Amino acid sequence: MLLRGVALLAACFVSGQILGETLGRLLGIQANVGGVGFAMLFLILSQNELEKRGLFHLEMGEGVHFWSKMYIPIIVAMSSVQNVRVAFSNGLLALLAGIIPVIACLALMPLLSKLAPKD
Question: Any stretches that span the bilayer, and where are they (predicted)?
Fold first, then answer.
């Protein structure tokens, strides 16, 4: 089960990187655009889906949590520095691609908190 958690994390990471590279090419930027973010989104969505179906076991979660404690913060930090360098070297479009999603997320937080079920 531990290996299944690591495999889930790896699959989400690879899928996110592929999507980020593809998005970068479509935008004409020679960089990965949001690959780590997409990977995190895929991991959250797949974990929630597996939990709903009763297929996400405690041991599987340990595999995900093991790597999230060590690996994901390092990758996020590395890619944030890389994306800032690319944004400044590629101009306004890449900079806006980073700023607009942050503003949109901040604007949607009150709406999402109202939609969340109360416990």
Answer: 26-45, 92-112
Domain of 29, in residue numbers = 2-115
Q: What sign does the CA torsion over 76, 82, 88, 92 have?
A: negative
Tokens 């690319």 belong to residue: 86
All residue ranges of the chain with pLDDT < 50 are none
How many separate domains does the chain show?
1
Q: How many other C-beta atoms lie within 10 A of the C-beta of residue 27?
A: 14
Backbone angles phi, psi at 35, to 5 degrees: -60, -45
Do residues 9 and 36 make contact, with C-beta atoms less than 8 angstroms apart? no
pTM for the full predicted model: 0.58
What's the full length of the chain, in residues?
119
